[in-house]
Structure to design on (637 residues):
């Protein structure tokens, strides 16, 4: 079922669902309150949205004004977003992990008039910078007892609890209902819907301008490419709605199709929430899938003996069954019987931990290692991969439900062009669309460029930066290197990540890092070697594996020295480095490494909010240790 072509704006999606798909009393959102999942109907959401719209109209908020959110995924996010979107205001969602200075920059650059705040920690950040933000009129906490944080503080902006704001707005709905309806229907597809700030791995944050058309067309074509999503789905949402991936792939898709959204309590409680909610669809990031893979492999083989043999037999049986089906053939009777037995004895137990109802999981935000995708395919859990950037709304390509090519990010979505351009000469190697798809097509790699409905309007207040990434012909330059493989897009790495060794060899870190991440001992890895004679790395081991192997206490991970000096730990990791290096070309192999005690984090400025390593920051921060490593090699070959 295709999305109604008359739907062209974000607020039109939910209204269409209530008019044509569900009753107003049907459940839209689910939230865990104490020990119970509370159901929230479409009617309740739309009523609160109207109350919020009424409050803002009374405050004098106009079409195009920017209204901010710095809050965890929750029903309050939806109320507020629907309330501002339908009067033509612009959603400015801010990553909760950003520093005070970054938050202040975004508030000032975008001219945010109000901001919804999710918890006391974030509230303290906001009130510290609020008086520097002259456009800010209202600070809106969603938690109780916020007043204690305001003692001896004089704020220029007013502070009102969201519940009080909604109550005040409810009393004004009758006065503003006609105006709300008029504003909602007068929004144009080209109007700005959201500013999403992205700093990438370098530079100050840039506000990506995404229109109503960007979002709605992205949802429309993704549903066309994955038609199995229907109004009976339950999505479990845990990736931040401040990120465009979760906003589009979960929130907007559910608004468009009429699916339920259950909000996970936290990453720590995700497994418990999956078992309780029993989702049918989830958006996720590769690292979550890698962890599930690692735990399943460890649990299945740790005890050895018959149990381990049964587990490995089941995985191999699943692999044979999957490969035959993917080749378009029908598995024989004996293999089918073996597969049923493997599913009953092994696969079903793993599936139960996801709730047992998953149709598929959608992986995005980074490359999913091919072996991890194949592992889930062997279990019968379908993993679809997508690719895009904040600047592309975000989806440019996504795996078709019926056609899996592991190690790729799927088929180009309808309505756009994707080109592969030679990095040096800028000549096009190929231009592909959804309709030119050929499952035998392959090409050389180059920069991935895109043109069409998914491309942003530009960067807010930054025409020069916009011109640097969108050329006169309308092609947006992603900065990613990729190629087509079996008709699907395959991403190699970022151009800026490319290392050129002292002998002129080009090395893309991501595929090399993914090879070493096959080791259950390794949590994170950062490849080095630009302008050097050989490749080295900073490695962060799996904390759980280290504790189990070496009986380490928490104090070990709190020591001030950032790098581990214990030879037994270094040798332990070196065993897997040596084993996995055989899968790589000699010039790609890690020759030396240092072991970092704790992971890279957003808070330390080492990762972007979308969890990409900031290469320059890391190299500068640990320059001395890196230089010492090149002087004192840890041999692994």
């Amino acid at each position: 079922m295709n999305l109604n072509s008359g739907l062209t704006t974000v607020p039109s999606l939910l209204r269409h669902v209530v008019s044509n798909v569900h009753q107003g009393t049907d459940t839209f959102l689910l939230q865990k309150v104490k020990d119970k999942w509370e159901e929230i109907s479409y009617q309740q959401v739309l009523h609160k949205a109207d109350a919020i719209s009424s409050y803002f109209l009374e405050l004098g908020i106009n079409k195009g004004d920017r209204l901010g959110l710095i809050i965890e995924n929750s029903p309050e996010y939806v109320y507020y977003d629907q309330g501002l979107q339908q009067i033509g205001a612009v959603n400015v969602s801010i990553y909760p992990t950003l520093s005070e200075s970054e938050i202040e920059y975004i508030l000032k650059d975008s001219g945010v008039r109000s901001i919804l705040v999710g918890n006391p920690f974030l509230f303290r950040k906001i009130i510290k910078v609020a008086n520097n933000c002259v456009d800010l009129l209202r600070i809106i906490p969603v938690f109780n007892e916020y007043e204690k944080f305001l003692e001896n503080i004089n704020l220029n902006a007013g502070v009102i609890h969201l519940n009080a704001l909604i109550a005040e707005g409810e009393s004004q709905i009758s006065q503003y209902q006609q105006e709300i309806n008029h504003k909602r229907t007068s929004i144009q597809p080209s109007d700005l819907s959201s500013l999403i700030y992205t700093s990438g791995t370098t530079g100050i944050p840039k506000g990506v301008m995404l229109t109503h058309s960007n979002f709605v067309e992205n949802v429309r074509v993704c549903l066309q490419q994955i038609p199995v999503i229907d109004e009976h789905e339950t999505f479990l949402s845990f990736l931040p709605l401040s990120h465009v991936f979760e906003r589009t792939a979960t929130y907007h898709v559910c608004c468009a199709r009429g699916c339920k959204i259950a909000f996970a309590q936290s990453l720590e409680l995700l497994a418990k929430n999956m078992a309780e909610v029993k989702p049918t669809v989830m958006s996720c990031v590769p690292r979550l899938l890698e962890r599930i893979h690692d735990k399943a492999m460890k649990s299945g083989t740790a005890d050895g003996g018959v149990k381990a043999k049964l587990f490995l037999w089941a995985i191999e049986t699943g692999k044979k069954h999957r490969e035959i089906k993917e080749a378009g053939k029908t598995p024989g009777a004996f293999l089918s019987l073996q597969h049923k037995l493997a599913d009953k004895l092994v696969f079903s137990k793993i599936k139960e931990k996801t709730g047992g109802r998953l149709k598929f999981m959608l992986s995005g935000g980074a490359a999913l290692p091919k072996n991890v995708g194949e592992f889930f395919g062997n279990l019968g859990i379908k993993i679809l991969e997508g690719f895009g950037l904040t600047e592309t709304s975000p989806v440019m390509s996504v795996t078709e439900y019926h056609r899996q090519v592991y190690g790729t990010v799927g088929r180009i979505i309808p309505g756009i062009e994707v080109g592969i351009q030679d990095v040096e000469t800028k000549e096009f190697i190929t231009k592909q669309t959804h309709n030119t798809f050929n499952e035998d097509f392959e090409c050389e790699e180059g920069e991935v460029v895109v043109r069409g409905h998914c491309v942003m309007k530009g960067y807010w207040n930054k025409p020069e930066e916009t011109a640097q990434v969108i050329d006169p012909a309308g092609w947006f330059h992603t900065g990613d290197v990729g190629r087509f493989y079996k008709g699907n897009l395959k991403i190699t790495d970022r151009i800026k990540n490319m290392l050129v060794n002292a002998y002129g060899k080009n090395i893309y870190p991501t595929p090399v890092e993914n090879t070493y991440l096959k080791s259950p001992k390794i949590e994170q890895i950062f490849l080095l070697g630009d302008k050097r004679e050989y490749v080295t790395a900073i490695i962060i081991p799996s904390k759980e594996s280290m504790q189990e192997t070496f009986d380490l206490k928490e104090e070990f991970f709190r020591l001030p020295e950032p790098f581990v000096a214990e030879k037994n730990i270094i040798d332990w990791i070196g065993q897997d480095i040596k084993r996995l290096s055989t899968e790589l070309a000699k010039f790609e192999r890690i020759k030396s490494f240092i072991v970092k005690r704790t992971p890279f984090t957003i808070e330390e400025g080492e990762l972007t909010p979308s969890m990409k390593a900031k290469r320059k920051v890391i190299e500068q921060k640990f320059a001395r240790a890196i230089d010492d490593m090149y002087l004192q090699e840890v041999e692994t070959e």
